[in-house]
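Duplicate of #3305? Posting structure anyway:
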């Protein structure tokens, strides 16, 4: 990685050494990892939570709605956090809340067997993740611009690394009959410890809402006004459509793939966790190689290809009658939705000014994460009436729409070049 000179903007950022840029990049990688770890730790234990509490499919959907409702509130609150306390302190606060929430979920499942307690924990867990997701993407987009390289797919690959780790630990915990509470308490403690260490390597950035000692700061209400103004860009809304379709497909897999494997195809709980692990592994591979692929072929062709792969994968998973069809479908499903979110982030940040880039990234992140987190409960209610596999047909339509909206993500500047 070569040292680059940051773009001139209202962010008055100092020139950073290569070591500082690497530390910043790696810290963002770690935060994405922690977010993925937290989500997959919950998802992998959904069948066990269902067994502990006796919840129906609709009941699980209601519990997930608690996370989704909290997440939407967190998404809405994220611009306020950015404007009021900045990304650094905001991400710490959000991930600590995630850890507390996931511990409450574990206690509500194993110790209390109380769906109401799980709902409260999921709401806290969702709020923290929703707020953190926006802020870490804003931080990641700024780090990508200052590094002058295509890094966003790799950042989201670290989210996927986290989901792979979470799915693997969850499958191991399920196979060893480790109580959900013990499993999630350990995960919560790990998240808190890791974020307190990691945050020291995130630089103070005024464009990310951070306060720099000894310097005046624009009033937070004015920063909020700049953030809201980003929503007037029509191209940005179409980028949001791309992220909506592919994030809906990703989020639905995170919440329902394990159960769809168990209830829809008749496999056991451990196999369901392993199939989910295969999905997140496919997403991880796609995101690791995504940067070079995007640099080679461009955003629009790659997004269209991803949408086509996602549709094919969903068809194989929903209608497949053989194990190889199920597994192939899961892999293609993962490939299909892996790059939608990171490409949308890079496309939103594809402007000359850091502050405007942060506002635009925040706006489309809200759209993407609303689909990622608010969509799965809808599938739960549809699955209750029509079956979980039939409910997944909704994803086909949204993936097609994402493919049609792909031209909105076309590069404005040369891929991989430092922002000017």
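Output from current build:
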């Amino acid at each position: 990685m070569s040292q680059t000179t940051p773009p001139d903007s209202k962010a008055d950022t100092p020139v950073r050494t290569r070591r500082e840029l690497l530390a910043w990049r790696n810290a963002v990688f770690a935060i994405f990892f922690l977010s993925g770890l937290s989500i997959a730790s919950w998802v992998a234990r959904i069948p066990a939570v269902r067994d502990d509490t006796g919840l129906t499919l609709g009941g699980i959907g209601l519990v997930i709605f608690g996370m989704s409702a909290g997440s939407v509130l967190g998404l809405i609150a994220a611009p306020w956090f950015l404007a009021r306390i900045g990304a650094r302190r905001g991400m710490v606060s959000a991930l600590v809340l995630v850890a507390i929430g996931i511990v409450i979920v574990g206690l509500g499942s194993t110790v209390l067997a109380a769906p109401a307690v799980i709902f409260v924990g999921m709401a806290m867990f969702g709020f923290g993740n929703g707020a953190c997701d926006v802020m870490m993407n804003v931080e990641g987009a700024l780090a990508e611009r200052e590094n002058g390289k295509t890094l966003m797919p790799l950042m989201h690959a670290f989210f996927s690394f986290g989901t792979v780790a979470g799915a693997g630990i969850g499958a191991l915990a399920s196979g060893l009959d480790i109580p959900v509470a013990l499993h999630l308490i350990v995960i919560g403690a790990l998240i808190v410890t890791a974020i307190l260490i990691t945050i020291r390597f995130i630089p103070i950035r005024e464009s990310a809402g951070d306060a720099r000692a000894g310097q005046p700061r624009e009033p937070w209400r004015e920063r909020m006004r700049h953030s809201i103004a980003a929503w007037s860009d029509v191209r940005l809304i179409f980028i949001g459509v791309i992220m909506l379709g592919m994030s809906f497909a990703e989020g639905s897999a995170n919440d329902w793939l394990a159960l769809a494997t168990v209830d829809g195809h008749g496999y056991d709980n451990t196999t369901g966790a392993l199939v989910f692990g295969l999905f997140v592994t496919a997403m991880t591979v796609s995101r690791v190689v995504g940067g070079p692929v995007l640099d080679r072929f461009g955003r629009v062709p790659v997004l269209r290809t991803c949408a086509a792969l996602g549709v094919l994968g969903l068809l194989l998973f929903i209608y497949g009658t053989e194990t190889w069809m199920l597994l192939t479908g899961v892999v293609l499903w993962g490939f299909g939705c892996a790059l939608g979110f990171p490409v949308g982030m890079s496309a939103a940040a594809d402007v000359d000014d850091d502050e405007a880039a942060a506002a635009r990234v925040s706006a489309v992140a809200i759209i993407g994460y609303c689909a990622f987190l608010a969509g799965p409960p809808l599938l739960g209610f549809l699955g209750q009436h029509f079956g979980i596999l039939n409910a997944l047909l909704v994803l086909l339509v949204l993936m097609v729409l994402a493919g049609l909206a792909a031209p909105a993500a076309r590069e404005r500047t040369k891929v991989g070049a430092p922002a000017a």
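Confirmed duplicate; merging threads. The chain is about 80% helix and 0% strand. Confidence is low (pLDDT under 50) at residues 1-13, 415-420.
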